[in-house]
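Exercise 7b. Backbone tokens:
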């Protein structure tokens, strides 16, 4: 997906939740209002969960495009938009185009589809090696090319026709001797002698080229028409015409069509740099995602590559960020979590507030910038706050969050209690999902005391559904702990109505850690923790304190 050159991507964390998606959309809208010099585009770093899908469908908002890696791509750098040429053009015309455009490689295309390539070396080799007198016909040269190359005029014949049989020769001898070497379909280069022209036609030459701009008599024209002989007149002398006529051959005869090294606009610069280092070509064709030719790229273009410009919302942990974040230029971070491990090359605008939801911060920023929040944006921001605070039940919820959600619900025209119930119900519909999809729908990685920890959370209003998930997820967690590259995995099965969580855990000493952190009894990789509903405010701090003691 080719991004605009002045675009800034606003993106949340991997395994995005409703706050991550809605905040990215709402903040991109705000930035487009206050900064018209750039284009801010919301993106997602993973698949949407059921709850977020419900929110976007309810308010009629398009799902942000998926971005799984923000390393610099071909579409992010300036490459040469060199137009493709037809396979029918002559070597001479191709050479002229190369000189005019300062190109060493020409792409050969048809309806924007790449057919092959021809290089300066290919053309030079054709001039040096095209010694066979029949090569002009073997290459199926169009008469239009011959006329154009010899800067001549078609006197008799069809320019669109092709010269497909015979050899090229120069008729320098008298007519008596010509009869000994002219054969049927030959192309004969000759002067203004009537007898020579007549002899060539009578010997069934396929084409005669009359040099020095000499006029062709009416008799010769009529006879040529009767015998099917093409007549071309050129201002060149016989030596020049003979020397240049091979340049009229179509480039299709010499172009390269096999083992071409192609790149895609979606290819990462890091990857193609390695390929370029192994191949001696100077220029490489680029195709878009539909397979259409769009331009040429060289090693020099890679030097001018610019990193993607990114705004992070709802996270500042490197382990939660989209892949390749270390290669991107981070402009801003808007978050409400603990300080994490994202590093930036230079100073950035970093706004982090101890609130229950990133969307609350963005609501404040709309107010600070004096911008009116439209009905749809209000609905998105309100949905995010409802989701992150479990409709104000989470200990992370502050009065600021609640007041913002109520104000936004009024703008969006929704009954917050009824809407929240429908939203949570949609989000807890997990029956048709695989164990892995359920496990990863809200899963984040943390580093605590040099231990790599994965923590997932699933919230539901259905106690029976949570019990079923416990039986499904525990065996799955034991399978994936090594695959995830972590030391411990925890999953919180949060009962929204009961305001409690069943904690599932796998990994060395996790049972003792949970018992120490929350003062509960852990048995068979399961512990019930009353009042635990927040991963950020309760679970991670409790786990961190227990690991440090």
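Sequence design result:
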């Amino acid at each position: 997906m080719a991004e605009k050159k002045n675009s800034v991507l606003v993106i949340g964390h991997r395994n995005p939740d409703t706050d991550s998606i809605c905040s990215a959309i709402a903040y991109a809208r705000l930035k487009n209002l206050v900064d018209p010099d750039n284009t801010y585009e919301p993106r997602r770093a993973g698949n949407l969960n059921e709850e977020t899908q419900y929110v976007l469908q309810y308010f009629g908002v398009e799902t942000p495009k998926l971005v799984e890696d923000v390393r610099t791509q071909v579409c992010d750098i300036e490459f040469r938009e060199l137009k493709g040429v037809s396979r029918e053009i002559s070597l001479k015309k191709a050479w002229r185009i190369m000189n005019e455009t300062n190109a060493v490689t020409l792409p050969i295309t048809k309806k924007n589809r790449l057919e092959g390539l021809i290089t300066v070396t290919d053309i030079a080799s054709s001039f040096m090696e095209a010694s066979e007198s029949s090569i002009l016909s073997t290459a199926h040269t169009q008469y239009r090319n011959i006329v154009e190359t010899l800067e001549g005029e078609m006197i008799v014949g069809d320019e669109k026709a092709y010269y497909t049989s015979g050899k090229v020769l120069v008729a320098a001898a008298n007519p008596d001797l010509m009869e000994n070497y002219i054969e049927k379909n030959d192309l004969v280069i000759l002067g203004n002698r009537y007898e020579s022209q007549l002899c060539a036609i009578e010997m069934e030459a396929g084409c005669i080229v009359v040099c020095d701009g000499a006029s062709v008599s009416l008799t010769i024209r009529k006879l040529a028409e009767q015998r099917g002989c093409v007549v071309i007149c050129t201002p060149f002398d016989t030596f020049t015409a003979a020397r240049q006529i091979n340049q009229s051959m179509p480039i299709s005869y010499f172009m390269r069509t096999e083992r071409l090294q192609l790149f895609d606009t979606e290819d990462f610069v890091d990857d193609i740099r390695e390929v370029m280092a192994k191949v001696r070509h100077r220029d490489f064709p680029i195709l878009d995602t539909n397979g259409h030719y769009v331009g040429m790229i060289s090693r020099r273009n890679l030097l001018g590559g610019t990193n993607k410009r990114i705004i992070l919302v709802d996270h500042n942990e490197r382990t939660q960020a989209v892949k390749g974040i270390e290669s991107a230029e981070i402009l801003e971070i808007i978050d409400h979590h603990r300080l994490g491990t994202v590093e930036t090359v230079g100073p950035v605008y970093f706004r982090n507030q101890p609130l229950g939801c990133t969307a609350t911060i963005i609501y404040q920023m709309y107010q600070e910038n004096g911008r009116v929040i439209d009905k749809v944006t209000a609905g998105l921001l309100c949905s995010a706050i409802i989701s992150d605070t479990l409709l104000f039940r989470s200990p992370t919820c502050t009065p600021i969050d609640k007041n913002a959600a109520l104000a936004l619900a009024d703008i969006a025209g929704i009954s917050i209690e009824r809407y929240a119930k429908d939203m949570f119900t949609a989000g807890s519909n997990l029956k048709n999902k695989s164990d892995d999809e359920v496990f990863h729908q809200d899963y984040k990685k943390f580093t605590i005391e040099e231990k790599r920890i994965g923590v997932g959370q699933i919230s539901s209003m259905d106690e029976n559904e949570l019990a079923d998930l416990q039986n499904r997820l525990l065996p799955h967690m034991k399978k994936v702990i090594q695959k995830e590259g972590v030391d411990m995995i925890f999953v919180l099965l949060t009962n929204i109505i009961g305001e409690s969580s069943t904690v599932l855990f796998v990994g060395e000493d996790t049972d003792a850690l949970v018992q120490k952190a929350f003062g509960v009894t852990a048995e068979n990789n399961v512990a019930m923790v009353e009042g635990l509903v927040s991963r950020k405010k309760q679970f991670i701090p409790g786990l961190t304190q227990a690991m440090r003691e």
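Instructor comment: The chain is about 35% helix and 20% strand. The first helix runs from residue 18 to 34.
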